[in-house]
Known about the structure:
heterodimer, A: 149 residues, alpha/beta, Rossmann fold, 5-stranded parallel β-sheet, 5 helices, globular, B: 162 residues, alpha+beta, Chemotaxis protein chec, 6 helices, 41% helix
Amino acid sequence: MAFNILIVDDSETMRAVVKKVVTMSGVAVGQFLEAANGREALEVLEGAWVDVILSDINMPEMNGIELLQEIKKNVVFKHVPVIMITTEASQARMDEAARHGAAGYIKKPFVPETIKAVLLDVLEKAYAQRLQEEKAPEESSGIDEDLDF
Amino acid sequence: MSETLPQLLCQTVAEVYGTMFFTFLETAEEAGLTPDPGQAVFLEAAIGVSAREAKGEVRFYYAEPLARHIASNFLAIDADQLDERRMRDTLGEAANMTVGSLLGKLDPKAVCGALDIPVVRQAGIRTIGDILSQPDTIAFHSDFGWLLMDYGVVKTCFKHHE
């Protein structure tokens, strides 16, 4: 299974590096999508299937935390896991991101192994959650069928 | 934390440049070398830091071959294929990661430190001697030239690490 990954960073160079490192990590990628800030990321989400988002925090226009808030408010995108990429200085903002539903974070500097471990962990959890949510209505309809009126 | 600020600084620079930029840097003392004070510096990467009551910039000054080497390693492309925009972008990222990591060590809960978006500019006509004559500066040696760092604002922000 290959995953579509959206990389959000105001630095084109950093986006290119994250792409290279993800590729080096061996994670199967269907398509890389890119955005330079949170606003652009929302536009990308409107037009393409995204399995996971890797987002910087400090960005002009719409930062990573604001993007996270918008995603979690949206019925269609709220299940797309968001991994924040940041420096250690942003620990307070990471806690804030976790409160807003960030699925994980990667500290800079990073190595391919770290990216791979976090990505696979987050994707696995997201997949399990979806399965559970898809199963839940079936289970509840099963209960209804068992009811004897 | 028992390390002094200069020790943490050296540790952080070695970690960040070694991990992300595959560049080995050591202090002038460790290398047993003294930079040529008349030598010009090439690019300056500055990142705004605010913590507690203090605010200012941490500045990094690069020799041209070192700036090219770092960008070339980071992007995994030949140095002669680099344009100045990508080189500046890389040095901005390096400043962000280095100072971010340093603040993370000084203030793990990040209750009082904040970083701005880095700015990279030509270093003008300044020389290594001009920069090192300022207080709270440090020189790192590499096979590709010198990296100088002016960390005065960090010292002001975190006085207990002097």
